[in-house]
Amino acid sequence: MPIRPTSIALDPQVRRKAAVDLFNHTWTLLGKPDRTERETDLMVHAAHASRFMWEEIGAPVNHARGEWQIARVYAVADRPEPALHHARRCLEIVEAHGVGDFDLACAYEALARAHATAGEPEAARRYAALGREAAARIADPDDRDLVISDLDSVPSDG
């Protein structure tokens, strides 16, 4: 029997806990104002590890959110090429699986931020506008406000 590329011997509950803990740890590092270069490296590793853990046990929404977080990490680390790659993957997953309104708005936010990081202000503005349109359709006001706040923090000058 061939081994799937993500198969590792972990109980699904352990894998799920690791995925969540790594996702949350990434947020801790993202929010650290005096993050060191080593902490930035660890932030990248944690985001990828979280996404990896979701591969077998997660639903498309988990995969999309993992790609979104990786795109955010790379944008914050000023690495536009991988930020763009993972933002595109996020949108692909959201579109392919009809993942909800919140995640569609987040995918557009990731693309806006990645294009801003790449010095592409027109594309950043285009995706930010799409993100705002999608955010307007989010039923939960807290989720809507969160996405709009993220969109407001996207650099507008590229």
Describe the structure.
This protein starts with 11 loop residues before the first helix and ends in a 6-residue tail after the last helix. Helix 3 (60-76) runs antiparallel to helix 4, helix 3 runs parallel beside helix 5 and helix 6 packs antiparallel against helix 7 (141-152). Helix content is 76%, strand content 0%. It has 7 helices and no strands. The protein has 158 residues and is mainly alpha-helical. The mean pLDDT is 94.
The coarse overall form would be: globular
The end-to-end span amounts to 49 Å
Q: How large, in whole angstroms, is the Cα Rg? A: 16 Å
- What is the SS-derived class? mainly alpha
Tell me what portion of residues adopts beta-strand conformation.
under 5%
Kindly report the oligomeric state of this protein: single chain
Q: Give a short account of the largest sheet.
A: none
Mean pLDDT: 94
Order of helices and strands: HHHHHHH
Tell me the number of helical segments per DSSP (H or I, 4 or more residues long): 7
- Helicity range: over 70%
Unreliable parts: none
Please report the total strand number as a whole number.
0
